[in-house]
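Researcher: Here's my situation. A collaborator sent me these components and asked whether they could plausibly form a single complex. I don't have experimental data yet, so a predicted model of the whole assembly would be a useful starting point for our discussion.
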Amino acid sequence: MKKILLLVAGLAISGMVSAQKSLLSVDENNKYIYYQVVDLPGRTADSLHNNVVLFMKEFYPKEKSLQITSSGASVKDKFLTYTSLVKHENGEMAYALNIECKDGKYRYWITNFVFTPYEKNRYGMFVPVNGVTIPLEKASDKLAKKDVEGYFEQTEAFCKQLGDKLKKYMVEGKTQPKVDKPVKKIVTEKW
Amino acid sequence: MKKILLLLSLFVIVVTSAKAETTAVADTGKVGTTADPKDPPLIFSGSVDTYYKYDFSGHANIPTSFASDQNSVSIGMIDLGLKKKVGKAAFVGELAFGPRGQYQSTPNGDGTTANGTNSFHIQNLYVSYDVTDKLNFTAGYMATFIGYEVISPTGNFNYSTSYLFTSGPFQNAGFKATYAFSDKVSLMAGIFNDNWNVYTAQHDVSTFGAQLFLAPAKGWTAYLNVASGPTSGTIFDLTTAYQITDAFKLGLNAADYSTAHGGLGYQGVALYPQLAVSKTVTFGVRGEYFKVKQGDNITGLTLTSNIKAGALTIIPEVRLDNSNVDTFGFTKGDGTPTKQAGQFVIAAVYAF
């Protein structure tokens, strides 16, 4: 019975892993890509474009690579990756995000993943290893298998979360400024 | 026993809080990026190392730091680091337990007799503040900015250390300001305690230190360092490394030190070529020339390999040192002086 349970658990875990890996595809240049087309019927290209601009300015306010075009926007940035045992930074993943809008839909893709490993410096800080950059496509040639799996999982998780946040902006549009609720007054003299 | 309990408690608290906080981080997946500049969690990291050394004379000969025990499976240290940044303010605290992290690299106590045998275990303890995106202030007890090699075995390719490392500063306590002109140029200037490697200044805070960082090309970094004071003397240091290809890296360290009084000191240069032959195996050589001013000189050749298996690195190493005189301190198995010394070391370093 225990063996069966272990087998089921194993299959479930391997299924989850392979399901997660399928989030990334390969484009015509053999580069990993996270590509999504999202339908939003009834929304004009202009209103979607306005939301893209809003999203980009909110999420990448200081990013010099941010480019707004007539049909969308693009930006280059990076996110940190973490070790699995005791959590600390072990690298950064550079990526490029592109968004385009049409009437009733938008599409976005995240690609050009390049990994830079981190090392601990003399001051106890984790910093990029000098001169080492590894395109995600070549990671399995240069890094240990287990590490590569971790970077893939974190990349996919990041892409999904970024896509979810983008969708929120695209659907809801400009977020209303938060109005502070008045603090409820209690009169202690009467009770 | 109290120390062990304290350490265990600290470990549990830190791991628990780090896990809890990084779970929250994973929800956004964008900590520290422009996309979502959220404060990173409390970060916990460290390493442990152990080694075996055999000096070919049958007794320990080579006097550089660490890997000191002859024909013994010995411990280096357990290193435990914590760091946290909230907004623009950050702290780093790094404790070490074991010969490498205590009496071989940090002072006992604060210099007073009562604390003469009381190890503080502190490798790094400082706070910093980002005044702007380009300007940072840091104060506390910090690993030195001088030199190529470091105390932590995870920061060095070779397990044994150079004469330049052993003779130079290990830590400098003080205050420093760092201004980044660009990704390729930055300048640090600071004022540090009168002596190197002390938790408490003997008289005053009178050592001036500066570091010019340059990145002339992709993969090439260079640090031009100076530390000078009426008590500690003056050291000029160049530390540079160039990742020339994916597989080949070349490092260089050169230094000139003059004592504050008496005109003594040392000079030296060390070259560090390293070649990765697979994704888990790298070979490297350290060739060093070291000269005591108005004294003897020594050359050292160390052949080292780093074999990685996940977080574990196995470091086998053969080292041959040769002095110009037989009075340098090396002795043969029968105790007679000799110009040469050689040793074999195999070490295991686990980083977490």
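Model: Some features of this prediction you could bring to your collaborator: The radius of gyration of chain A is 22 Å. Chain A has four helices and eight strands.
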